[in-house]
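Task: encode each sequence below as structure tokens.

Item 1
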Amino acid sequence: MTQIANRVRRSSQRRVVTPRRLQSVAGGLIAAILIALSPALPAQTPAEKVDSAAPPSAFDGELAKRTGANENGMRSYVFVLLKTGPNKMPAGPERDEMFKGHFANMKRLAGEGKLVMAGPFDGVDGWRGLFIFATPDIDEAKKLVATDPVIIKGEMVAEYHRHFGSAALMLVNEMHDKVAKKKF
């Protein structure tokens, strides 16, 4: 028993950035968003029978089409991890301008329906932020990221991963506008 406890203690002390950790972070973020966006569903009574061939009563074919959902409500994305780059810009007007451009670029890409979600991390392990793009193509995502001032200036570098997740993620920008009192 003490051997197991020692192994658990040792493994919890290690902090290694792995693809599994990245997948876990992405999955957790998406799960939290979907829970927040999903309406309360009525409980099913044991007497109710489910026909797995028929779409659920809440299914919205138009919404599925608009979000690019497959028959399981999923679609492909590119997840971009933004990490600290080689050129830390010192505080001042040039840095302020760079981040102003960063936010303007994100707003433009979101408005075009290309950037589905973006946000900062806490900086631990050099992780600065994320982008999720509505494309399955990493090369296309690289072209979109290359337009960002924090990448151009070397403040951040990008790491690209294919991601397959809920098509409901496509609704985040639309929902965000409805819950944000102030705009960036």
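Item 2
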Amino acid sequence: MSITYRGETFSGYNKPKRTPNHPTKSHVVLAKEGSTIKMIRFGEQGAKTAGKPKAGESAKMKAKRKSFKARHGKNIARGKLSAAYWADKVKW
């Protein structure tokens, strides 16, 4: 199932994809919550994010992840229609 929305093709709702050719944002997702549909671009292009937790991860990366979640906690809690939710899920 392929969805085209505002000139962008998505494999489905709530499935983020990389956007390597976008000048500022690294990912895009067609978010759907209830009957509301919204295209959300998120993540800084080329940012060195912590990624998913790994065994033997450095203390610096743990602190980086913790700091991001503390700083954006309120926006992450807003749910699928916020860029912070997707950045937390995909990049952190």
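Check on item 2: Strands lie at 3-5, 8-10, 17-18, 25-33, 36-44. DSSP finds two helices and five strands in the chain.
End of task.
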